Amino acid sequence: MTTFLQIVVNGLGKGAVYALLALGFVVIFKATEVVNFAHGSLALLGGYVVFATRPTLGWAGAAAVGVLSAGIAALVVERLMLSRAKLASADSLALLTIGVDIVVTEEIVRRLGTRIPFLGDPYDAKPLHAGDVTIFRTQFVALVVSALLLTGFFLAFRYSAWGLAMRAQAENREAAALMGIRSWRVTASAWLVAGVLAGVAVLFLATQDFSGSGLSRDTHSLALAAFPAAILGGLDATSGAVVGGLVVGLAEALSAQYISFDFAKSAVFIVMLVVLVARPSGLFGTRERQRV
Amino acid sequence: MSETITDTPAAQQHRAAPRPDRPLWTVLLRWAVALAVLLVLLYVPLIATRPWLRTGEYAMIGAVGAIGLTLLSGQAGQLSLAHGFFLLTGGVGYVVLTAPTGRSELGFGLPPILGLVGAVALSALLGLAFAPVSGRLRGIYLGVASLSLVFIGLYLGQSLSSLAGTTSRGRDPVPFSIFGIGFGDPEPGKPVFQLLGVPLTATERLWYLFLALTVIAAVLATAAVRGRPGRAWRAVRDNEAAASVLGVSVVRAKAGAFAVSSGYAGLAGAMTVLWFGLLKPDESEYGTYGINVSIAFLAMIIVGGLGSVLGAVIGAVLVFGLPLALPILTSGSSLLSGTGGGAITPIILTQFIYGAAIIAVVMFEPGGLAAIGRRLGTLLSRRGREG
After folding, report:
1. Residue of A106, A266, A277 lying closest to B132 (CB–CB)
2. B59 to chain A, minimum CA–CA distance in Å?
3. Which ipTM did the prediction report?
4. pTM of the complete model
5. Do A35 and B140 touch (CB under 8 A)?
6. Contacts of A33 in chain B (CB under 8 A)
7. Do A102 and B79 touch (CB under 8 A)?
8. pLDDT tens-place string over residues B280-310
9. Domains of chain B by range and CATH?
10. What digits encode the pLDDT tens for the residues A168-212?
11. What is the 3-state secondary structure (H, E, C) of chain A?
């Protein structure tokens, strides 16, 4: 029973990180209908900046700079490329982000070379004990930080002018523009927010507690697990991202424990496949309607 | 979400579709060019060095797979990231069907040609089995759902060692042979068959085998695109409701496209196994049958122009050929010779090039290289008509 409890808590901690990444997908998708395949590379970029600036700025400063640079990188990608490809449909733009992903990932991996730095200095590899239950501190911190960030996001999304503009644009882009909402600002801010979330997520991904592997190509494939999270919850449902993230985290942790470690990666995708067969737009996604 | 991948005005104008009003001389010119290219390709093994032949063969593997994907994504409008998985099933299918019976690893001892056909059929059937998913999902949802096949394949490949061999050792495929002509290395001692004074070793033979397979793949694909299946695929891609009103069975067209594409990938997988002379399951999701391969195939067809068979072939030469060609080109010079951390290797350079090419194509020329070619063609034929 204690093992089970441990796994659930650790799984939820992982899920919280996936939720951060998945929310990034959803925010971008809501604003622009583009699926950002470059999300993993944004996380990688943020992580690399943390690694590169840590000796001079210390962990906290480096983390702040890393998170910010992931956000700015996302902004640059949107402003420089996606906003200029006006001819392309949303799906073509998704393909464009694959191109971005390849270039950025290869460059970061090349720069890292043989180094695989861990990024979670203050909390990594310092387990917490509560009675019989031992949980990874990273997962615990991730859970708390994600809860705060997600609450902040949902409050802003619900009550701020930015959130209103965002929801309006998601509802009907043209009508929103006619109401005086600056479409480009909504889009750009969506990318910025998504980039920042990816930058936060990487601080937990590249730790011994989370994956046992430092910042490397593996981090990028970990971030890939946020894909099923976003799809499972529904690409246009913000709350779906959180639920999807937690489901993915739990599925991964439980199957790693009870089936096999190798199976965990596949388990996540199988869960997604099952959900998609039953509900093609995810758990909370809006059903697509077709007019003739 | 729009129903198609290239739902842009510019792309619509340049879609690969048969044009009945093509003047006779351009048709003849096309045939002449195709024939000339084929003759050159037949002649290549007699002059090219071994590394170049290997490069060309690898590009042909890419071409076969990319043709399959361009039918699915370009013609039928279904985004798939499962190509790596079907490559694996094709490779495993060939090895298992042809391997000798009665060993610890599974084998059926079939003749290689049946093994090859079986590998294609097996992959196509597995693609068909995915129809309940592929038929229900659209666009990005399908893309990510199909990605799950790669992960399932990764797990199965690692755990079913009686099929795919172990990750450390793998399995040796039976070399291809047909009508008593072997495509492996000739037995030592026996005289090697010579063509115009050039001994045909395994590398040259494989070139001819791959060339034949690629030509068959391309011809069949072109016929499908120009014929009834292609029309059905495009109709479904552009508007499912309209297609069903026209009497196209949407479910069948979608499932068919997925099966055909998977069959192509299966052939490419069997070719991969023959090329490496080894079947080895991947250790991570990046490998011979991994996500990176699925994405590389996607890159080929985007750069080449979605839906264009010729574009897919050119894309394959770029994406699969370049990483092998660059080291040959730069050997001896200091360029690209570094190894280890931080060095720009040919593989990394190729990734940069095709990553950038994808970005450039989507931003500036949604129809890919095929659209550029078609525009040049129109320009030439217009000038020909006026002058």
Report:
1. A277
2. 20
3. 0.84
4. 0.86
5. yes
6. 1
7. no
8. 887 777 778 888 899 889 888 888 888 888 8
9. 9-330+342-386 (1.10.3470)
10. 888 888 888 888 888 888 899 999 999 999 999 999 988 888 877
11. CHHHHHHHHHHHHHHHHHHHHHHHHHHHHHHHCCCCCCHHHHHHHHHHHHHHHHHHHHHHHHHHHHHHHHHHHHHHHHHHHHCCCCCCCHHHHHHHHHHHHHHHHHHHHHHHCCCCCCCCCCCCCCCEEECCEEECHHHHHHHHHHHHHHHHHHHHHHHCHHHHHHHHHHHCHHHHHHCCCCHHHHHHHHHHHHHHHHHHHHHHHCCCCCCCCCCCHHHHHHHHCHHHHHHHHCCCCHHHHHHHHHHHHHHHHHHHHHCCCCHHHHHHHHHHHHHHHHCCCCCCCCCCCCCC
